[in-house]
């Protein structure tokens, strides 16, 4: 690694077109590495959020069922009426 840094410094200190080309490449590669890190972090966060959303959806289903059951229990008992009777 040290050797690569020495060579890079030598090219960047030169007054040649290679300096500009290398500087452009370094900047492009640096941005690509940072973008990949950011993407990896975002993918992790997305996976976490998806897991949380799935858990929340499951919990919501459970609560809706529980709510329906509680509503059913609170309803007044229905009067049994024979078919054809006026109500």
Q: Which spans of ≥5 residues are poorly predicted at pLDDT below 50?
A: none
Q: Rounded to an integer, what's the Rg over CA atoms?
A: 34 Å
> Cα distance, first to last residue?
92 Å
Report mean pLDDT, rounded to a whole number.
93
- The oligomeric state of the chains shown is single chain
Element order: H for helix, E for strand: HH
Beta strands, count:
0
Question: Which structural class matches the secondary elements?
Answer: mainly alpha
- Structure annotation, total helices: 2
Outline the biggest β-sheet.
none
SSE blueprint and pairings:
Elements: H1 2-13, H2 17-74
Helix pairs in contact: 1-2
Structure overview:
This protein has 2 helices and no strands. The protein has 87 residues and is mostly helical. The protein has one domain.
